[in-house]
Design a protein that fits this description.
Helix content is 44%, strand content 19%. By secondary structure, the chain is an alpha/beta fold. Strands 5, 6, 7, 8, 9 and 10 form a six-stranded mixed β-sheet that branches. A five-stranded mixed β-sheet has the order 2-1-3-11-4. Strand 1 (41-45), helix 2 (65-77) and strand 2 (81-85) form a beta-alpha-beta unit. It is globular. The structure holds arginine. Residues 46, 48-49, 53, 88, 105-108, 153, 156-157, 194, 220 line the site of arginine (ARG).
Length: 262
Amino acid sequence: MNMKKVLSLLAAGAFAMFAFAGCGGDQAAAPAGGDKQAKVLKVGSSIDFPPFEFQDEGQKDYQGFDMDLIRAIGKEMGREVEIQNLGFDGLIPALQGKSIDVAISGMTINDERKANVRFSEPYYQSGLTMVVRQDEEAIKKFADLKGKKVAVQIGTTSAAEVKKIEGVEVKELNTPADCFMELKAKGVDAVVNDRPVNDYFITKNAAQGVKTLEEKLTAEDYGIAINKDNEELQKEINAALKKLKENGEYDKIFAKWFGEKK
Ligand code: ARG
């Protein structure tokens, strides 16, 4: 009897060891769930920049060229894309704090930013132009801004560039829409902002008393910003971008938002 007890205890022990090993197996499988988590690509964007990123009233999804592009990139990489709306001047800090993996936001590639983040290959050629009221006579070029009030979006290349023009009073506002509102309300004499966004704004507001001037203050390239430590992700993003350019998907997205292929 005693022997039987011992044997059954041993058997129970052996079973327990099996169960434990099984458990270990389960745990070894657990990182798969973790991988799933890592598969979400956390994207930050300042959703205030039509036709690159915007949200129409009553629409749930963010729309625009950048939104379509990053979703296509995510698809190419086999990662689910989750987009967070952040203030433009909060994007680089969010990358540095790792609350997002990438930022796509019509962001110009420049050396100052390169000190803090990595960039993908350029994906769009842009530049800065100026919008004034339709009846504006005194401002025909950037040099005419001396002694004038100019609205720009905070944290942008427009803000940096306009500050370089001597004698300009710069008003830094949260969004381009705020800048255009300020222009119409005559709180400023001009808005400096990215050309495609100005053109889109003018097209949409054709009858509303503003015009865009021809002169370009700068030529700029947009890139997707990535955390400075994450070279691997930069490579993956560039590979996906390259693929989309080769397979025609990039051109499709471009044509959807800008009409002709560039
Ligand atoms: N291209 C400019 C810059 O990088 C403006 C970008 C603003 N983007 C936005 N989503 N509001 O500074």
